[in-house]
Structures are given as C-alpha cells and as structure tokens.
Please model this.
Amino acid sequence: MRILHLGKYYAPERGGIERHTQALAEYCVGHGDRVGALVHQRPGCWRSGEETLNGVVVRRVGCLAAPVYTPVSPTFPWHLSRMLHELQPQVLHLHLPNPSCFAALASPAARRLPWLVHWHADVPPDAPDWRLRLGYRAYRPLEQALLARTRAVIATSQAYLEASHALVRWQHKTRVIPLGIAATEPGTPDATAWPHSAGLRLLAVGRLSRYKGFDVLIDALAMRPHDSLLLVGDGECAQPLRAQAAARGVAERIHFTGAIDDAGLASAYASADVFVLPSRDRGEAFGLVLLEAMRAGLPVVASAIAGSGVASVVGGGEAGLLVPPDDAAALAHALTQMQQPATRQQLGACGRARWQAHFTLEQSARATRALYELALAQDAPD
Model:
C-alpha cells in the first residue's frame, strides 16, 4: 500500500500524536508499504524541507507561527498537491485536530482517494482560551465536512468517542483503536536525576501547558514534604510553574529537565517510584505517556477525567490510582498510598501486563492497517 499521513508535526517532536504517527508509519514501512508524512516545521521556521526517516518520506512545510496550537503554513496546499503527485498514495490518513488537513477538501486529487481520520482530540467549544472558542466557530463547518467525506474515523477510546460532540453524527463509521507502543530495552536506572533521595521519586512527562495540571502536582508536592519530582518537558507554562514551585517552597525538590532524549526518558522511567499524570480536562484524550510508564512496570497516579480515555488505559485502577482532576489534596493522598513498596510493585506489574494485553504497537497498527485495506476494497469515493 501507499499511505500519506497529514499531521501537525513529526519526529523529533515528542508529543503523543507525533510519537504515534511515527511508530505507525514505520510499522507500515516494515510491512512493505510506501509511506509519506506531510507535516509542519516548528513555528518560526519558514523554509520547507524533506528527508527520509527510517523509510518514511517526511516533508515539513514552512510554518510562520502557531497561535493557540494552530500551525500557520500558507503553502501547505501546494505541498499536498506535490506529495500526492510524487507518492501517488492509495490512502490518506488525516490526524486531527489540524486545520491544515482541510486542504484535502479543496484538492481534486485528494478527493479521489479514500480517507481515514484519526481523531486524537476534540477542539473544545468551551475552552478557557477565548481564541479557541472563537476559532472553533470557523473550524467546525470544515471539520464536519471532512468527517462527512471520510471513509472511517479512528477514536482512541470508547469513552472519548461517547463524549465527543463533534463525532455524534459519525459514530456509525467510527472504530475504536487504542494507541499502542512497541517493546523497548529498559533504561539504565539513575536516581541522581532527582534532587532529593528521601521520599518517593515522582516522574511527570508532558508539555508544560495548563491542561496538563502540573500546577496541581506542585501543590500536592507541597503536602508531601519528603517526595521529589522530575518534570520532563517544556512549554508556555514553564516559567509560571517555576514561580509557583518557589512560592510553595518546593523548588529544591523539583528538577525541571526541559526536553530530554529517548535514552534519558527511558532512564527516568526505570528510576522513578511513581508516574503522575495530573491532567485537568479532556485535552488529555488518551495519555500515551501512561503506556510508557506501564511498559516500564511503573505504577501510575492519574486524573479520572470524565469523557477521556485515561481511565480506560489505567483500567479503572488496575495499573494505578485514579483521582479527581484539579484536586491537590486527593492527589497527595494517592501518593501517600503509594508509599508501600508492595503496593507499587503490584500496580506496576499489573500495568505492564495490561500494556502487553491491550496496548502494544502490533495490536494498534495491525487494526489500523486493516482499515486501510477495507477502505481500498470499497468503491472509490465520488
């Protein structure tokens, strides 16, 4: 098969969507498919470029800026036309949310192909940022037009599908395929990455954005005087979080690492006592980092977000503890429960078994590839 992915970014960007797109694309290459990815450069990089990464042809379109997480790339439609001509794909795989995918609606060449939409997250119409609320008024008609045109929609969890207002009309053609990750060699333990040796070594990974709830984790840490935190990632909330840590008197117990490489991240998973995902809303649609922690046998504490896939990943508490979002006291209490080594060992073992049973890359990619084949077996769209 020949497959073209349309997405926001691609490796070495480290978001969950980017990591999944890369893993899926490389899996398909390994099974004899020809795969391309049309994505954006980092905001501010105006020049477009192309490279081949592990067999995947990746074209990055120049990006002027990315207001409210939305890449602005005026030449994206032109590059889409060019890749359609050069790759001659049989299937388009569109990763949403991403306004650049709407270029396919105006492309006769794209409209001749079957499409699959990977629904990674909603654009919340009640978002705290007024710019998102206003922008969604223009985004929604195009979003719905794209969903009407697509052959199949992939949702990453049943809970997210059922809570999505955008997918209400399209549930009949939506398949639930959870994300998955491949097995890797365990990292080399290195407890020195944590600023204090006493108490629990906590690990949190993600973009430093408001919806991730790291401010709640800092408040919880203030209630746990002996624990320390390794916070991996960067983002627009980095400085406010540092200021909060100083104000709460926990700055010396938090190591803000910024972005780190795969080896460093694997080492962090191998060294931590507990992984924490304190996200506050459905912006956390699934939580790929939970799978990374579970693969490492690390127990998790995560937010029980209504309408999100997080609880389905954790298994309702099978692989860790679930707490109400935005509740620092409940989070601190859950960490207290994690003090017992036997509890951590049991939850970690259950989490790894759950990953192996439900969330491997092989399972996820095989189901997605079967959808490609089904789309090709049907009549071509008008």
In short: The chain has two domains: 2-182+360-377, 191-358. The chain has a mean pLDDT of 94. The chain has 13 helices and 14 strands.
